[in-house]
Amino acid sequence: MSTDSPIGRVVATENHPTSTGSFRFWLAAGVNLKPFDFVQVQPPENGDLDIGRFYAIIDEIHQVSDEPSPLSGFISSDFGNSSQSPRVGRVVTTYADATVLYNTNDIEMPVPHGSRVRWPDEDGVRRALGIDEYRRNTPAGYITMSGPEDKSIVISVDMDADYLVGPEGAHLNISGVSGLATKTSYAMFILSAIQQRAEDWPAGTKPAFVVLNVKGADLLRLHESDPDLNDQTRADWERCDLECKPLSEVTYFYPYSSSEPARVQTMLSAEEVSANVDAGRAHRYFYDVENALERLHLLFEDMDDPAQTLVSCVEYCRENVGGEDPWSALRSKVASWARETPDKSRIPVVSWRRFFRLFGQRTRNGIFTELARRAEDYRQVSLSDSLCRLQPGQVAVVDIAKLPDYLQAFVVGDVISALREPVPSEPDDDEEQGRSAEARTVVLFADELNKFAPKHGGARSLTGHLREISERGRSEGIILFGAEQFRTSVDDRVTGNSGTHVFGRTTAVESQKDSEIRLRPQSRRVPFLRKGELLVSHTRFSAGTLKLRFPRNAYRQG
After folding, report:
1. Rounded CA separation 148/363 (Å)
2. Of the N and C termini of the chain, which has fewer Cβ atoms inside 10 Å?
3. SS3 524
């Protein structure tokens, strides 16, 4: 079939008329289409009336014949002889259902019967999706759709950064089963796209990034180029108008440990840690008594505390322990209070004994220590202080993979609290001393979001923090990029406020349980998505949901 030939014609029947939002068309012989493909429709000439061209996305494809029932086909094939050709020939045609996205003349009228359907052009598809109206384009991947003579049409797709990282909208959520390296890879692709494109954004809109490494060493080599990059991967990055390169300006924060030789708790080898520290792109974070007391309640997030006795013990420690005290002094005081409570009417001795047991167990980790004698050599830092000084464009990777769950929650709570604190600006000579805190935007990426904001399990202050970020973080300059295997296991208020939803392959049961998936077009295809394929819903997409592919990451993984 010629590339200029129509691939079908719109048909409006008595039972299925066309409308302003949808239509059907039959396909010419030899034409192959897929759901999520795009088409353009050229209405027939109608005198002086020019209603423009329509652009539409394919919802479903059907084939129909004039066979009245399976029984007639059975009889026609010599009563069930599958090798026998049917004695009665049937008229067969293939037709597609499509949803209208855009009209070039901004006319909202039903697609006329008999209109010619053609392959789309890239510029028309991007206009139909509204991409040309964006102020800050951020590559989101590309569409690979059917085309003439069975050649694919590849169209790059952008998100609107105003609706991804503020100020109009914010937050991104990615869900899908583990093992496909899709969720984290896509999040890092988006971060790389933002980092590269932000160089051309207006002043004051360039974000910083905080990445939580929750498992393995997947995110601990973001600055290193993948040694296995091939020409296909580079071509995929070029399709998105991006450079095929790893993230830049990356700094790593490893949990401190007193054990040699690396003095960290991480999945990397001692040699890799030393190389990053010597190159000035890594630090070892720790918590002295002063810093720990501010977040101490986060250590007991997973414990049942209906009477709030653990909280009361934490408050008492804050009131009666000096920040300059060493950890040995704090532990000694807690032990003495467990033997003889100083205020029985406020906290009974049995509560102090429970607190003493849990406190001793949960602070028996290398991150709870004082500043070492060789702190400068070890690049030993306070995590919250370092994050407060994070500059636009910089990437901070906070490693918590080897910490137990309760310490992971503790560190994540510290990270969120540090990001939510206003950053005081340095007043210039020409400015008033009482100037307000400097505004900044920080993108926080958290994998395994269900661990930190579970849907069930009682109220947690960490869940409350994440709710606050999802609901009001845009105004505070904190943008949450979250990922999880199952959306239904995450607090609804955390996921529901995302302006961009990304769905990787998941189970059929999960796709039916999650109304966010179930109510979207083509939801039944989610369990069958391949590696590298995602369904993406962005606030600014006129299509609602697109099936996108994205390049393989350019950084070294694993």
Report:
1. 65
2. C
3. helix
Are the C-beta atoms of 11 and 25 separated by less than 8 Å?
Answer: yes
309 & 419 share domain: no
Nearest to 193 by CA among 251, 231, 242, 146: 242
What type of residue is 75?
A: I
Q: What is the CATH number of the domain that holds 371?
A: 3.40.50.300
The per-residue pLDDT for range 36-90, each reduced to its tens digit, is 999 999 998 765 678 899 999 999 999 999 988 988 888 888 888 888 888 788 8
The answer to whether residues 262 and 315 belong to one domain is no
Collapse the DSSP code of 183 into the 3-class scheme (helix H, G, I; strand E, B; otherwise coil) and give the result. Answer: helix
283 & 295 share domain: no
- In degrees, rounded to 5, the angle at the alpha carbon of residue 204 between the alpha carbons of residues 200 and 207 is 75
- CB-based contact 58:39 (threshold 8 Å): yes
d(CA 158, CA 554) in angstroms, rounded, equals 19
Is the N-terminal amide bond of 261 cis, ω within 30° of 0?
yes
Task: State the alpha helices, DSSP H only, in 389-478.
Answer: 405-420, 449-452, 461-476
Is 0.85 surpassed by the pTM of this model?
yes
Q: Which of 21, 30, 11 is nearest to 55 (CA)?
A: 21
Looking at the structure, tell me whether residues 229 and 86 fall in a common domain: no
Instruction: Indicate whether 432 pLDDT > 60.
Output: no
Q: Which two tokens stand for residue 9?
A: 């014609």
**Domain containing residue 351:** 290-362
Q: At what angle do helices 349-362 and 309-320 cross, to 10 degrees?
A: 80
CB 201 within 8 A of CB 194: no
User: Tell me, what's the pLDDT at 87?
Assistant: 79
User: Do both 294 and 278 map to the same domain?
Assistant: no
Beta-carbon contacts of residue 249 (< 8 Å; ≥ 6 apart): 393, 394, 395
The set of residues, in sequence order, having a beta carbon less than 8 Å from that of 265 and lying 6+ positions away, is 254, 255, 256, 257, 365, 366, 367, 402, 403
Rounded CA-CA distance 226/246 in Å is 8
Token pair belonging to 141? 């991947």
Q: How sure is the predictor about 551, in pLDDT bands with cuts at 50, 70 and 90?
A: very high
Q: Indicate whether 110 belongs to any domain.
A: yes
Relative orientation angle of helices 309-320 and 327-339, to the nearest 10 degrees: 130
Residues 280 and 313 in one domain: no
User: Are residues 298 and 218 located together in one domain of the fold?
Assistant: no
* pLDDT (tens digit per residue) in 267-289: 999 999 999 999 999 999 999 99
- Report yes or no on 129 lying in a domain: no
Q: Is residue 137 part of a domain?
A: no
Helix axes 405-420, 461-476, angle to 10 degrees: 30
The answer to whether the beta carbons of residues 262 and 273 sit under 8 Å apart is: yes
Residue 141 counted as domain residue = no
Q: Give pairs for 332-338: CB < 8 Å, separation 24+.
A: 334/359, 334/360
Helix (H, G, I), strand (E, B) or coil at 127: helix
For residue 546, which amino acid is it? Answer: L
Claim to verify: residue 209 and residue 319 sit in the same structural domain: no
Is the separation of the CB atoms in 41 and 8 below 8 Å?
no
SS3 string, 291-350, reads HHHHHHHHHHCCCCCCCCHHHHHHHHHHHHCCCCCCHHHHHHHHHHHHHCCCCCCCCCHH
The number of distinct structural domains making up the chain is: 3
Q: Provide the token pair at 126.
A: 């991007």
